[in-house]
């Protein structure tokens, strides 16, 4: 590791459509994201805003039908994955790009042993034989902090707790030392205490390997603690992107401000039972996106123009982009 | 130790079940009007009341039903299943003589149904809206709706007159023994039509079930995980999806084994196959109570054994079962 950062992933113009009942839903719209090595990018937003779909699109695992990647480029290590053959993609998946899913309870195969599920990636990508793969599987289990890995390797997923299963998922994702790790809400299904352990593990792994990490979450607290840069998504678009420090100190999009305001402050001297803040209204359905800004009908500062026209992306400062009419003319 | 206890408990329940089956069937049979003597009299073209009474007392049919049941169970306990009025043979040797034919028929039909049913189901699930999938769905619905005897008779018509390449009746050709190899080929040749007629219904069910089960499993999180690992589609399909999709099939196969035996009665009658099914049909017509009871005993035994085997298979296939 030379400590220098180079561009690892460069997504631009990424669009994903879903078709059903004769209608077309734009689930992702002109998404642009970049990531360098040694960097943790957070993708944040409410459910249904396109976070997970972005992750699936990177590996071209968008369920198809009904889904379809309708445009854009996903350049990973200089290669456009959207142009790659299925064969080539299978070499990238699990090898150069590892992925951790949200539900450790259902993401492991119930009828195969932990060791079996870990080894198959190693056999496929690193061409290890069965014995070497098993030895490496035990090493990996140890590396992600699973006690008694020699015993656990022969156990089945149902014999492990949720936190342990997520550690197995992580072990599986990092088995081939990927350059990019995508973690899609890795702790949503876990206890708070276990969450902290998993994040600690991810942070440590990223620091040690110099890989890029994309962390998908809906939790601004996690963003603050874990990430270097943040992309805020809403209605299938990236509405704001900036360094984590900028996002937290100078959020430019009303939606970002709303998300930050929603984090309950444990130190605040509010009366017990005081209302938790929330963003009023609901995420628009992807089948029924408005013509203008997707956030307009929930935005306290919306102007007539917001409903009529999609705001362009404004660059506020180096690395700080926002798509909001309020910021028009604020460009640096 | 736990295993021995487990097996002992299973055996105990099975014994109670068998005795229950025997008692219930004994009583049920007595509910039907008429008795063997009436049937005999009918065949001989009439009989005086004295001869009837004489025969009844000779066979013990004049005793109260419960006394008869007691005598039957007592003999049963010592391994005596009684004597067939009609076939003039001890029931046990009669059944043992017919058992292999039925086992051959039922197991062949089962293997054919499971293998082709799951294969078709898996193929259909690869492209759930594809042409093959729709074809399989249509064929399944037809196969599922057609009664066994009707399928059997159509096959007989087809292979007896239109394309006479398969024997439509019996288990062996009239000419006997050209060595065990030729004999086996002969039996296999005779087996084709009855086994296929019996298999069709189940084949249809299993292919539909497999298709649905595969589609369900293919949408699951762990299949997505397998794809995200970069595994070949073939591996995703067979290693990750298929094993999970088979679990409901195993259950259904076990539950339906009894139905399969019942289906054998019809098929054996239609194709003149000398097995337990036809024996059952004949003994009902002849009011051959001891044979009928013996058959019911053996059928319940077969169903119990089949269910135990399915249990073992399920335990092998699903590691989660062992834990509980």
Strand pairing plus helix content of chain A: what structural class? alpha/beta
User: Which fold name is given in CATH as the topology of the largest domain in chain B?
Assistant: MetI-like fold
Structural class of chain B: mainly alpha
**Helical fraction of chain A:** 25-40%
- What is the H/E string of chain A? EEEHEEHEHHHHHEHEHEEHHHEE
Task: Determine Rg of chain A (CA atoms, Å).
Answer: 21 Å
What is the CATH superfamily of the largest domain in chain B?
Answer: MetI-like
Radius of gyration of chain B (CA) equals 24 Å
Q: Which percent bin holds the helix content of chain B?
A: over 70%
- Strand % of chain A is 15-25%
Low-confidence stretches of chain A: none
Reading the helices and strands of chain B in chain order gives HHHHHHHHHHHHH
Portion in beta strands of chain B? under 5%
Total strand count of chain A, please? Answer: 12
The number of domains of chain B: 2
How is the biggest beta sheet of chain B arranged? Answer: none
Are there runs of chain B of 5+ residues with pLDDT below 50, and where? none
Distance between the termini of chain B: 16 Å
């Amino acid at each position: 590791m030379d400590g220098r950062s180079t561009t690892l992933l460069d997504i631009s113009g990424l669009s994903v459509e879903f078709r059903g009942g004769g209608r077309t839903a734009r689930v992702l719209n002109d998404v642009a994201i970049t990531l360098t090595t040694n960097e943790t990018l957070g993708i944040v937003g409410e459910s249904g805003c396109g976070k997970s779909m972005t992750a699936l699109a990177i590996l071209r695992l968008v369920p198809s039908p009904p889904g379809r990647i309708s445009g854009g480029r996903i350049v990973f290590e200089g290669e456009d994955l959207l142009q790659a053959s299925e064969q080539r993609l299978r070499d990238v998946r699990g090898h150069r790009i590892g992925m951790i899913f949200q539900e450790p309870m259902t993401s492991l195969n119930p009828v195969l042993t932990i060791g079996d599920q870990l080894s198959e990636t190693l056999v496929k990508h690193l061409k290890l034989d069965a014995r070497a793969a098993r030895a490496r599987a035990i090493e990996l289990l140890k590396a992600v902090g699973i006690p008694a890995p020699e015993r656990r390797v022969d156990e089945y997923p149902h014999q492990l707790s949720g936190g342990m299963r997520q550690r197995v998922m992580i072990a599986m994702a990092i088995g081939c030392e990927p350059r990019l790790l995508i973690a899609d809400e890795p702790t949503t299904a876990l206890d708070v205490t276990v969450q902290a352990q998993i994040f600690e593990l991810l942070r440590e792994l990223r620091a040690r390997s110099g890989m890029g990490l994309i962390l998908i979450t809906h939790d601004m607290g996690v963003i603050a603690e874990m990430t270097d840069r943040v992309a805020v998504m809403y209605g299938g678009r990236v509405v704001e992107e900036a360094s984590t420090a900028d996002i937290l100190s100078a959020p430019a999009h009303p939606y970002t401000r709303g998300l930050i305001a929603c984090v309950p402050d444990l130190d605040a001297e509010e009366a017990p039972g005081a209302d938790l803040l929330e963003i009023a209204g609901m995420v628009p359905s992807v089948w029924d996106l408005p013509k203008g800004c997707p956030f307009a009908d929930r935005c306290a500062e919306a102007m007539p123009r917001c409903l009529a026209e999609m705001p362009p992306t404004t660059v506020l400062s180096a690395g700080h982009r926002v798509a909001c009419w309020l910021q028009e003319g604020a460009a640096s | 130790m736990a295993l021995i206890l487990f097996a002992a408990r299973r055996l105990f329940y099975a014994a109670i079940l068998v005795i229950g089956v025997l008692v219930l069937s004994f009583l049920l049979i007595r509910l039907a009007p008429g008795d063997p003597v009436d049937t005999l009299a009918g065949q001989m073209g009439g009989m005086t009341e004295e001869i009837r009474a004489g025969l009844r007392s000779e066979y013990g049919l004049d005793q109260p039903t419960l006394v008869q049941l007691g005598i039957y169970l007592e003999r049963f306990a010592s391994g005596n299943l009684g004597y067939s009025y009609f076939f003039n043979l001890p029931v046990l040797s009669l059944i043992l003589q017919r058992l292999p034919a039925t086992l051959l028929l039922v197991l062949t039909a089962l293997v054919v149904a499971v293998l082709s049913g799951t294969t078709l189901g898996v193929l259909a699930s690869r492209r759930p809206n594809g042409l093959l999938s729709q074809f399989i769905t249509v064929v399944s619905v037809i196969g599922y709706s057609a009664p066994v005897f009707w399928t059997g008779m159509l096959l007989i018509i087809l292979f007896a007159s239109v394309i006479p390449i398969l024997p439509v009746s019996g288990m062996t050709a009239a000419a006997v023994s050209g060595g065990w190899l030729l004999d086996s080929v002969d039996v296999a040749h005779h087996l084709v039509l009855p086994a296929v007629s019996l298999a069709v219904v189940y084949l249809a069910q299993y292919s539909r079930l497999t298709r649905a089960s595969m589609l369900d499993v293919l949408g699951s999180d762990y299949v997505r995980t397998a794809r995200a690992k970069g595994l070949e589609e073939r591996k995703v399909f067979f290693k990750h999806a298929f094993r999970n999709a088979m679990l409901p099939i195993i259950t259904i196969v076990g539950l339906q084994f009894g139905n399969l035996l019942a289906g054998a009665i019809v098929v054996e009658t239609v194709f003149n196959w000398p097995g337990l099914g036809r024996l059952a049909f004949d003994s009902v017509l002849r009011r051959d109570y001891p044979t009928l009871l013996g058959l019911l005993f053996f059928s319940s035994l077969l169903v119990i054994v089949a269910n135990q085997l399915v249990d073992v298979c399920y335990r092998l296939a699903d590691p989660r079962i062992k834990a509980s």
